[in-house]
Amino acid sequence: MDVYRQMRTIRVFEEKLSELVMAGKLAGFLHLYAGEEAVAVGVCAHLTDRDVVNSTHRGHGHCIAKGVDVGGMMAELFGRRTGICKGKGGSMHIADLDHGMLGANGIVGAGIPLTAGAALTAQVKQTGGVAVGFFGDGATNQGQFHEALNLAAVWKLPAVFVAENNGYGEATPMEFVTPVRDLAVRATSYGMRSAIADGMDFFDVYAKAGEAIAHARQGGGPTLLECKTYRYFGHYVGDPLTYRTKEEADDWIQNRDPLKRFAERVVREGLVEAGNLERIDREASERIEAAVRAAEQAPFPDPAELLTDVYVNR
Amino acid sequence: MVAAINEALHTAMRGDPDVIVLGEDVAGGGGRADQGIEEAWGGIMGATRGLLKAFGPARVRDTPISEMGFLGAAVGAAATGLRPVAELMFIDFIGVSLDPLLNQAAKLRYMFGGKVRVPLTVRTSVGAGLRSAAQHSQSLWNITTGIPGLKTVVPSTPADAKGLLLAAIRDDDPVVFCEPKSLMFVSGDVPEGDYVVPIGKANVVRAGSDVSLVGFGRTVQTALEAADALAREGTSAEVLDLRSLQPLDEEAILATLARTGRLVVVDEGTPRCGIASDVAALCVDRGFDLLNGPVKRVTAPHAPVPFSPVLEDAYMPTAARVIAAVHELG
Fold first, then answer.
1. What predicted TM-score, i.e. pTM, was given to this entire model?
2. Distance (Å) from the C-alpha of residue A115 to the closest C-alpha of chain B?
């Protein structure tokens, strides 16, 4: 039930952030992961702390799925000293190397070569680890995507590149800017293994990510795994959503929601009682509320922190 | 200087299994024993020759011509436990590969609240003088120096090249190591063994009392030539080699200014928003009371590097221009 707990924690975390921004309590750009939970959780369920993930501007879900402390994340978003990055990173730069989280990234596509680099470390040092890079459909038009995939393929790096295809790059629909419908085909030109998963279905993501990660771990090289998904809140909190119809959003949210589908399936198959899931939902909400209370009460950074950690040795 | 760089790389790789070398042609097609090709290019200048044979293909990697991809990978590798030395063949190629340096290597540690180190060294060749025209001759150290989180060093002698490169590789911050093309085949004594020159310390290479000539990389030689000529006129010039542009040894600059009261800074780069302007600003800001005249800048012009030897020679700062600047100071 850990995976359901993680998905619910991500959902509640993101819904709470939307509420806090609307109430004027949080500053900065926030790109929410709600709707895509099955992807992060389905992939990260195969990983341990020796494995590294790299993320995007829409990174909260990956952080939570990789085990980053939600209290530290919330404090970071409030810009507090107790934040996971001491209040210096904010939403787009949450990182926690202790849990193999090599950072969200504010530059679209920039995390993909970093993922290749983390996989290079695993290969050279023979750690047995793999590196997983998450990125959106928009990033697959960046040079960094193509250069990193080429490099990872030619060096047979233990990496998995997870394209979260949510259909939009910021406000622009994919078909305006990308000439293929399935991003997975882009692996072909690098002689790379690829797969497509229903990103709204935890079990499908889990199965296909498992194959890709096992392949990488055994020295078989990288995979491009495309997960078809949807971002409920649009590009960022406050997005007017003028580029999509209400019908389209309702269809994804009501008929394909990954949490709802997961719950229905496990209850139907008798794997878990509905009451247990409701208890997890309550606990997740309480956990996030507690994180908000703690963050609001935490101290801001000391002004002297402005110049620390620019260099290791100045 | 190529041999000194090669020696530093061998020393660093022998001493630390986490040091890897990657870049275009760093092995250069070597390692094909089945075809009788064990050693090949070893880098465009030969600086990485012999590394493949000594340390094997896992640690010495030819990359695609894909600077953004392999520099980004080098950043990711540095952040996760390796100590990569990446070769950006010419600093001009920073145009297709800036993001890994600008937004990743330079900022990860700060953005992550100090919880990561990025011990990356980027070796790159800089400067004019090889008749290679506008896209293979630039001195873009002002770009890397201006990015907080990066360090930028420029050796002027083979000994410094060895010592500064070893220091750069062992430094826990990302360092851009600029190799002046026009000095690559210059000879000089190089200390044996594990020789390190600390980053951030300028070097008084010639003592003097009438005027300070501040240079780095190739322009140290230019300044020394000028100092010789000035000595014949009865002017005693002190020559300061900055060695490192970030961190900048501000105290050494102010100290030489205090000794002479007059300063000329010589930079092979372009004049706007450049190192010479930076040094001049420092002198005015923190050393105004020490100045007996204006600070003079001798730089390349605000123009691309031309191909024709006649034009390129006119482009580069010369001893004659340094001497003229000193004469202007009276």
1. 0.96
2. 6
